[in-house]
Amino acid sequence: MKKIAIASLLAAAASSQVQADTIGIYAGAYAWQPSVSDSTEVGDLGFDFDADDNATSYYIALEHPIPIIPNARIQRTDVTADNKYSVGELDLSHTDATLYYEVLDNWVHLDLGLTARVFDGQIKNGISNVAIDDTVPMVYGNVMIELPLDFYAGVYGNATNLNDYQVYDFTARVGWEAILGLGIEAGYRTFNAQIDGLSKNASVDTTFKGPFAGLSYHF
């Protein structure tokens, strides 16, 4: 029995190693419908915004078998909110460039790394524009569990509390992957940004949150 148990453990370890020692490409795109909670200010002017229903996000990640070199992931999110009462817009669109390592890679997947979030948005108030264009370092984490019948579930996200940026951004998702790698994905994303120190005494304290649905691909 002891020999059988040891053989089983060795086989499981070998299977896990084979799975880890492959090149994988992960990609996806989804439509996001967030509501917005906002207290954006420019000088002494406050603004109330409605979320844009056309928020979108798409990503691609590359994983490889070289242990010392991190894996890479890029995600783009376009998200804006229109002012309720006058001409104006809050744009918190950004690109995430992430380097991460696979800590676990079997039926439970755990990735940890660092993200550079590049904001390229702005605040428009009908009179002047305030740029939101900093690059912010963030901690990245991703947990995913493989489920029966090619389903999976997990949570991934980024967070930082640095200088004038306090940001957290978490996505809970479930998905199903077909034999050829094409799948569907749905979930809920919460993106909170507290930003101070902008020009013209502007500040942002906003939460975008809501469901999303889209397509995924794994090769």
Give a structural overview.
- This is Outer membrane protein.
- Keywords: Signal.
- Helices cover 9% and strands 66% of the residues.
- By secondary structure, it is mainly beta.
- The chain has a single domain (23-218), classed as Beta Barrel (Lipocalin).
- It has a 10-stranded antiparallel beta barrel with strand order 1-6-7-10-11-14-15-16-17-18. A 5-stranded antiparallel β-sheet has the order 5-8-9-12-13, with no helix packed on it. A two-stranded antiparallel sheet has the order 3-4.
- The longest helix has 19 residues, at 2-20.
- The two termini are 39 Å apart.
Examine the coordinates and then state which fold CATH places here, giving the name of the CATH topology.
Lipocalin
Helix-strand sequence: HEEEEEEEEEEEEEEEEEE
Q: From the structure provided, what is the oligomeric state, counting identical versus distinct chains?
A: single chain
Poorly predicted runs: 1-20
Major sheet characteristics: 10 strands, antiparallel, barrel
**Distance between termini?**
39 Å
Rounded to an integer in angstroms, the radius of gyration calculated over CA atoms is 20 Å
- Under CATH, the homologous superfamily reads OMPT-like
Q: What strand line-up does the widest sheet have? A: 1-6-7-10-11-14-15-16-17-18
CATH class: Mainly Beta
Number of helices: 1
Helical content stands at: under 10%
Helix/sheet category = mainly beta
Number of strands: 18
By CATH, the architecture is named Beta Barrel
Count of discrete structural domains: 1
